[in-house]
Amino acid sequence: MKKIFVTGGAGFIGSAFIRLVLEETPDIEIINYDALTYAGNLENLQGLDATRHRFVKGDICDKETVLRNLPEETEAIFNFAAESHVDRSISSASEFVTTNVLGTQILLDAARAKNVVRFVQISTDEVMGSLPEDDAAVFNESSPLKPNSPYAASKAAAEHFVRAARETFGTDTVITRCGNNYGQRQFPEKLIPLMIANALNDESLPVYGDGRNVRDWIFVEDHARAVWLAYAKGKAGGIYNIGAKNERRNIEVVKAILDALGKPHSLIKFVADRPGHDRRYAIDAALAGNELGWKPQTRWEEGLRKTVNWYRENQDWVNRIRNGAYRDYYREMYGAGLKSL
Ligand code: NAD
Ligand code: DAU
Question: Which residues are 78's β-sheet partners?
Fold first, then answer.
């Protein structure tokens, strides 16, 4: 059995990645290392094969605990652990610097100390900033890093430390930069699960600004598969953009959710814009296609239907989150007066 060390595996994308690896790769054993912040959820790991998956509660910023739990000559570290929400980084950036930058450096040091074979950093298209609206421009791997939010800045900084480890110490690194993920088990502060959860409760749907910002959406399982292929087939030092050529304006996404649930568009409420709100993301994933043999498998209509159905069938999952870790933040962001609180 080969061992891999996955950080942030109790979150949205990390848990989808672990599910995929356990299902499709019989000779892999996973150590899932996660601090269980507000976004980490052990319910996301229910039903996993316990003989090949071991959960360890730990912080990537805690060097001793990382070293104690990282086996010598682990095949790969997959670093999904992060503070991941842009709005939270605008309210308070320091946790983003700590986890996303310092935490990544601590993992890079540990990888070197334990002779880890490959380090895979899960980055984001947001490091490349914003594209002009109604334009043919797309992000590719040579696009300059121009992060606009504190979250994006912390992820760009992390990328620089990954690059520095490769240049300075010869660490075998791969970086993936994906666009906006959607799918089951996404924390209900992000656009799609927030809108589904609000619509199910007949609460208003807060759309920032004019709602015409564009995101390039990808189903989470397609991203998970791309990360695996980047590990298995990517060049040392490689950077791979991951996207499904699925640009949508926010307002179009929100209306599609309301239509899928049979709810009226009158639930939409335009609210103040996000400061520094990136206008448009669009990803050219040709390199991942050519070098990794990756292509997305889930069409938007199918992925959105699966996602809406999952949230409809798992309203208890959302309510447990809303009544716990998410409650104060939700009140602060959207005010009281929403029925479920
Ligand atoms: P998430 O917020 O759902 O999960 C993050 C996980 O990391 C949680 O389980 C949390 O407990 C854990 N974590 C946070 N701080 C930690 C720490 N200090 N030590 C150990 N664990 C810690 O995030 P997600 O949406 O699943 O994103 C996963 C990764 O993918 C992140 O690195 C993010 O930047 C990147 N990414 C996300 C998207 C997206 O659309 N969500 C797109 C591209 C890239
Ligand atoms: O592009 C990849 C990134 O996508 C990831 O790196 C981040 O971790 C992930 O959070 C996501 O960032 P965004 O800021 O694009 O995602 P979010 O779901 O917060 O917002 C998507 C769009 O919807 C954005 O234009 C802001 C808008 N929005 C969001 C919320 C939460 C609203 O209009 N209303 C809302 O209530």
Answer: 6, 120
pLDDT of amino acid 333: 67
CA–CA dist 341, 323 (Å, integer): 8
Enter the tokens of residue 42: 């052990």
> Closest ligand 2 atom to the C-alpha of 195?
36
76, 231 in Cβ contact below 8 A?
yes
Q: In this structure, which ligand is nearest to the CA of 194?
A: 2
Contacts of 203 (CB under 8 A, 6+ apart): 267, 338, 339, 340
Centroid of ligand 2 to alpha carbon of 86 (angstroms) = 7
Q: Which atom of ligand 2 is nearest to the CA of 190?
A: 18
Give me the residues of the chain with pLDDT under 50, please: 336-341
| Residues labelled as active-site residues | 125-126, 151
Helices 300-313 and 315-322: crossing angle in degrees, nearest 10, is 70
For position 335, what pLDDT does the model report?
57
Can you list the domains of the chain with their CATH numbers? Answer: 2-181+216-242 (3.40.50.720), 188-215+246-281+299-334 (3.90.25.10)
Residue partners of 159: CB distance under 8 A and separation at least 6: 121, 123, 127, 145, 175
* Distance separating alpha carbons of residues 268 and 198, to the nearest angstrom: 10
